[in-house]
What does this fold into?
Amino acid sequence: MIKIISREITYLWYYFTVLLEQILKYYLIGILLGSVISVFGKEKIHSVFMGMKKSRWGIFGIIPASLLGIVSPLCMYGTIPIAASFSKKGMRDDWLAAFMMSSILLNPQLLIYSMALGKAALLIRFLSCMLCGIAAGLCIHIFYKNRSFFNFSGFGNITSRDTDPNILIRLIKNIGRNIKATGGYFLVGIIVSVLFQRYVPADFFAGLFGKQQRFGILMASTVGVPLYTCGGGTIPLLMEWLNAGMSMGSAAAFMITGPATKITNLGALKAILGVKQFIFYLFFVIIYAIITGAICNIIF
It folds into this structure.
């Protein structure tokens, strides 16, 4: 028995070190890039978005709005006060929807993390998130053209924590906060991935989420709801799932519904959406994820 336990610990440690070596560099680069953007570029990004109000983009403004949402490093609880400030200054709801939707799904750190999944998955994540923001803006433009979709009453301007007068100290503090917020989830994700690799047969997983499974995309969308806690923590899982036979379409669906239905994000969104708008949001996310997954399975 002792020999068996010792052997299993050796196997698990080996898998852990290999997976950590594969993904750690992306995690560290993502942390650094996210902190640099947060400290030095966040205000510029938001001022560019606010400056769009003076332009004549019209409905086409949802495209740059979606891209700016991806570039913005704020979490959803940080994005909402900013969006509230934009709304009070007359920003269009369809532009805000595009900005907030893509911001929920992706940020610079997560984009860097996703490089560990390979070029195809990275491209799919970026395009699907950008297009999801655009689609959200279009839906608000069509279905809520003459009505307000958001209710930002009670939200004021966000207070930045990047206030240290020393720029280097400001950056170091931001990096520390990012590691504290995501490091635990990152390690848990690797541990779960190691256990999955060791004890779950690849054929079993491929049978659930493989390209030939009719309900694989829907199941992946459903799995994303309880499992998604942190973007960095799900990257090791997605790496193992794709290696085990998960189709690219199922992975795409998971990468959309996961952050979009993350409990903290839903809690934040519930504060600014009424019941009908909240249900509208959930239906939109699920339908978009299924369509995106199906298209990805056809292409890849």
User: Anything to note?
Assistant: The two ends are 45 Å apart (CA to CA). The chain has one domain: 2-299. The CA atoms of residues 4 and 95 lie 59 Å apart. The mean pLDDT is 86.
